[in-house]
Amino acid sequence: MAHQCNAICDEDIVRSLVSKKRPDLAAKFDRYLLESYIEDNRMVKWCPSTPHCGNAIRAEDDKLCEVECSCGLQFCFSCLCQAHSPCSCLMWELWRKKCRDESETINWITVHTKLCPKCYKPVEKNGGCNLVRCICGQCFCWLCGGATGSDHTYRSIAGHSCGRYQDDKEKQMERAKRDLNRYTHYHHRYKAHTDSSKLEDKLRDTIHEKVSKSEKRELKLKDFSWVTNGLDRLFRSRRVLSYSYAFAYYMFGEEMFKDEMTPEEREIKKNLFEDQQQQLESNVEKLSQFLEEPFDEFSNDKVMAIRIQIINLSVAVDTLCKKMYECIENDLLGSLQLGIHNISPYRSKGIEQAAQFYASWNSKDADKFQPLDSGTSGVTSRPEQASGSRSSEDTICSSSQKRPKKEGSFLNNKVTLLDLNLPADFVDQN
Questions:
Q1: Sign of the C-alpha dihedral, residues 381, 387, 390, 392?
Q2: Which UniProt key words apply to this protein (predicted)?
Q3: Cβ density class 49-74: b for 16+ within 10 Å, e for less
């Protein structure tokens, strides 16, 4: 920093000079160097776990992907929310907000209550008479909402007539009621599959106990990997089904793609999607039913029969998931003019788990990186583990806080070895 000095002071020199007198300052420099690299690189992001695990993940080929950190959190690399395909990032953000805020409560109030003309508090009708009395004492007509006196009969209110039709008000109420019923339909099914997934998560321990008992029995069949594979398939397909209802709510509604499709086109595409959704739903329920069978108590022939059923259903569910994603990518989102809605690709083996690598602090050792575990690809691909994963809706979606330094980095599939403590230009050159 001296005037007219051409000497370059790189990270190694800064560390050697500062660490002698101020080791704490050298550690702070290293931490800021790491954080500045991650914040400046769109393809490297912190894991959004809470509390933070200290891991960073790099995606090399595609920013639009879902990844599982070594801490167990599965998240979307693009928006840092929980893994949400087949929803696009924008759809998922709107759905979370809709489920979280009071928008549907307001819709319910609009449909089922009327405002008092005196205190303007919502009043719900609890009887058959159209003369309603608010807690403030004001009487008003339930049909039109106008203030009245208290004299009335069952058929009429003294000095009051509201037989004139008000078109705008009636249309507004009908629209609010229709929107509420539509949201309730999709949210009920989304919640049902989410709750089923949480209950089926407890199946893992039960399945392991059944497998352990079966292996101790003198059966012809010794390999029970088809059970755990079927369970993993059930978890993945249940998650896809759950988020498919959030996708359908926006895809076939009028708030996003009103100008992109005619009502006739929307109805055709809706029927096409719902047919595939129902086929997937039916097979997922059958798979769940067979996995809950007490196969550890069955005879040889019955165990072989249920094995064939679970394997066939697992293959069928996987195929139906692929077809649904192809339908969404090609027939639904692919035909839109606005290309802002993209989804992460479907993976039969589940969300890819990032692999951990050793990262050296010294640039002179940059060519000597070795992964912690054996293998040449530098990638550890494991099936999605539902019991060990954290995908809560309370996960933060963005963060600007400074993280503690973490030795090493985590990478998803098809990535190069990376030391996050090196400057971006060095990494790009290597």
A1: positive
A2: Metal-binding, Repeat, Transferase, Ubl conjugation pathway, Zinc, Zinc-finger
A3: beebbebbbbbeeeebbbbbbbbbbb
Helix (H) or strand (E) holding 11: helix 11-21
**How far apart, in Å, are the Cα atoms of 216 and each of 68, 222, 230, 295, 324?**
34, 9, 21, 13, 40
Within the chain, which residue ranges are assigned CATH 1.20.120.1750?
A: 173-342
Q: Is the dihedral of CA 262, 268, 269, 273 positive or negative?
A: positive
What is the pTM (predicted TM-score) of this model?
0.68
Q: Using CA atoms, how far apart are residues 65 and 78, in angstroms rounded to an integer?
A: 7
Of 280-289, 349-358, 361-370, the poorest mean pLDDT is in 361-370
Say if residue 87 is exposed, middle or buried (CB neighbours under 10 Å; 0-12, 13-18, 19+). Answer: buried
Residue 129 is among the residues annotated as catalytic for this protein: yes
pLDDT digits (tens, 9 = 90+) for 112-137: 788 888 887 888 887 767 778 888 88
Query: Exactly one of 129, 144, 162, 397 is catalytic; which is it?
Result: 129
Question: 262-282 as b/e, with b when 16 or more CB fall inside 10 Å?
Answer: eeeebeebeeebeebbebbbe
Structure tokens at 124: 């719900």
3-state helix, strand, coil in the chain (%, to 5): 50, 10, 40
Helices (H), ranges, 262-360: 263-291, 300-326
DSSP assigned state of 197:
H
SS3 208: helix
Cis peptide before 51 (omega within 30 of 0): yes
Distances (CA, A) of 328 to 50, 226, 256, 266, 323: 32, 29, 15, 13, 9
**Number of neighbouring beta carbons within 10 Å of residue 197:** 19
Tokens of 343: 């989804």
Q: What is residue 190's predicted lDDT score, i.e. its pLDDT?
A: 92
Model confidence over 204-216: pLDDT tens digits?
A: 888 888 888 888 8
Q: How many CB atoms lie within 10 A of CB 202?
A: 10
Q: What angle do CA 232, 386, 340 make, to 5 degrees?
A: 95
Q: What is the pLDDT of residues 39-75, one digit of tens each?
A: 888 888 888 888 888 888 888 776 788 888 888 888 9
What CATH number should be reported for the domain whose range is 173-342? 1.20.120.1750
- Do residues 15 and 29 lie in contact, with contact meaning Cβ atoms separated by under 8 Å? yes
